[in-house]
Structures are given as C-alpha cells and as structure tokens.
Amino acid sequence: MEPFALGDLEILTIGRSGIDLYPEQSNVTLSGVTSFRKAIGGSPTNVAVAAARLGRRAALIGKVGDDAFGIAVRDALRGFGVHDAFVSTHPDLLTPVVFCELVPPEEPSLWFYREPRGPEMDLTLDDLPLDAIVEVPLFWATGSRFAEEPSRSTTMKALESRGRSRHTVLDLDYRPMFWSSVEQAAEHIGAAVRHATVAVGNRDECAVAVGSSDPHTAADLMLESGVELAVVKMGGEGVLVASAEARAVVAPVRVEVVCGLGAGDAFGGSLCHGLLEGWEPERIVRYANAAGSIVAGRLMCSDAMPTLAEIEEVLS
Predict the structure, then answer these.
(1) Which spans in the chain are helix H?
(2) Taking Cα atoms as reference points, which of 264, 271, 247 lies closest to residue 198?
(3) Cα-flanking dihedrals φ and ψ of residue 55, to 5°?
C-alpha cells in the first residue's frame, strides 16, 4: 500500500513493535503447542493498525532491531496502511518476540522475549518528530513507555510538547514485567496522566495510575487531574466513560472468546476514530466495545482488526 503524505497525518502512536506468535491449538500450554501463526504486535502498533483499518491516517514512532523481524514489522505496517517513517532501527538490540499461551483463551498469558530490553526502550529525543507530535490531531502514548530510560524522558517530552492539546491520549497500559515495582509505575504513569486529555485503562491500571480501582473514584481522580475524558474498563460489567459534564456505563458486547488479546487495542483504534469524528462519549465507547468484541472472537490481533462496516453490523 502506498503511504499517505505525512502532512495528512491524523494519528500518531508511540511505543513497542514486535512479532507475536499465536498458537494454533487452544487450551494447550506452550510446551504442547505444535504450530504458531505470526503477526506484528505491540499495543501502540496494534492501535495504529486498528485506526488505519477504520480509514484513519496513522503512523507509529518506534524502534526495531536490525534483523529480519524488523523488516517484517516495517513491511506489515506499510501493508496495513500505517506510515513507518518514524520507525528507526537499533543497531544492537533485536526485534522482540512475544509468545501467546491460550490457557484459558479469555485470559491468555504472554511470554516476552526482549532481552536485555526492547529496542523501543532506547527511543531518544533525536528519534522524536516533534513537529508532527505537536501538530497531529491525536497523539497516543502508553504507560509502559515510562518503565525505563531513555524512553521515559523521551515520551514525557513528547507529552509536554503537546501542551495538553486535544486529543492527547494516555493508555495506562500497566505491564508488571516491565517495571521494578508497583510504586515506580505509580509514580511515572501517574505523572503522565497530568499531561493527557483522555485516559483509558482497566481497574488494575487505574489503581496504579491514580490510586483507586473503584471505577467512579478513579474517573473522578483523573478528571480532577485535568483529564477531559476518563475511560475505565470494567470487564463483564462494561465500560465507564466520564467527563466533567456527564458519565455513563456502556454495556459490553457478548462474544465467544477465541483469544482475549488484541481486544483492547481494537477498542483503542476505534476510540481514536470516534474522538476524531467528534462523537458523543457514549457512542465512541459503544463502537469501541463492538470493535473489541470482534477481535476477541478471532485468533490474531493486528490481522484481525475490524472495518467500520463490521463494527456497525455488530451494533445493528
């Protein structure tokens, strides 16, 4: 697919890319799996792909290894219509590989192979396209960006450069394996919340970021910190979406789960689309829930991202 002109960019995400390996046998531990399917992954990567599938012009700021998997990531991004102009190559670190274990399918385990670290953790200020970050209509950052230096300072600089302009989105994205302690994560993700206009996370991630797993309390704390729209995922109880003017709980879309991974990234890509469309918050989350349910009913993540027609079919 031919890349769009960067001057037309609508969405810019920052963070990890890698290769995800999905077992073709469900409810089997990794030791018993006999075959895998390969796709690109990493939450910010998947969000960009999900948004592109909905017709948005998206790009990723990231870093891959100087290896065959790094080439595969770039090729796949372009194939999905995501611009790779801001994906650089690390001369020493390998492109990460992640194995998924579908035991159970609803709550798969992830095994990260990124020793000693993922190349995107070495993103520096020189890797930032600051003009694009300032000007893009929607910038998407994740909490895991703050786990190590220099990624921590680099991502904070990106957020600061936005001056809390709309739409600056923070996916709380707490991944315990990336952090030395919960306290460290709370300090740095909590600080990042104060630079976002939209914050999204589940109960556990809210507990880390703002100190409460109660959805309404967490939403209140995020709004008090200056967030304009707080989105709290509550699993089977739906999603709470709150602004200073109103709040609502949007019911989930029930689906037979094939793989619980990727649903949150599909939710994120659809959330980006709805924000840029200027929809009311409840409508945004309704579409995002539907997008997540579609991917939960499929094996893959990036390859499984739905089109707008598929989302509307579910909602109808």
Answers:
(1) 43-53, 68-80, 130-135, 151-162, 182-193, 203-210, 215-224, 263-277, 281-296, 308-315
(2) 271
(3) 95, 5
The CATH number of residue 69's host domain is 3.40.1190.20
Q: In angstroms, what CA-CA distances link 71 with 2, 66, 115, 131, 292?
A: 17, 8, 19, 26, 28
Query: What pLDDT, on the 0 to 100 scale, is given for residue 3?
Result: 81
Indicate whether 283 belongs to any domain: yes
Q: Is the peptide bond before 116 cis (omega within 30 degrees of 0)?
A: yes
The residues with which 100 forms a beta bridge, in sequence order, are: 110
Using CA atoms, how far apart are residues 126 and 106, in angstroms rounded to an integer?
A: 40
pLDDT tens digits along 77-108 = 999 999 999 999 999 999 999 999 999 888 89
Query: Does any domain span residue 190?
Result: yes
**Quick check: is 280 in a domain?**
yes
DSSP state of 98: E
In a domain, 123, yes or no: yes
Residue 56 has pLDDT above 90, yes or no: yes
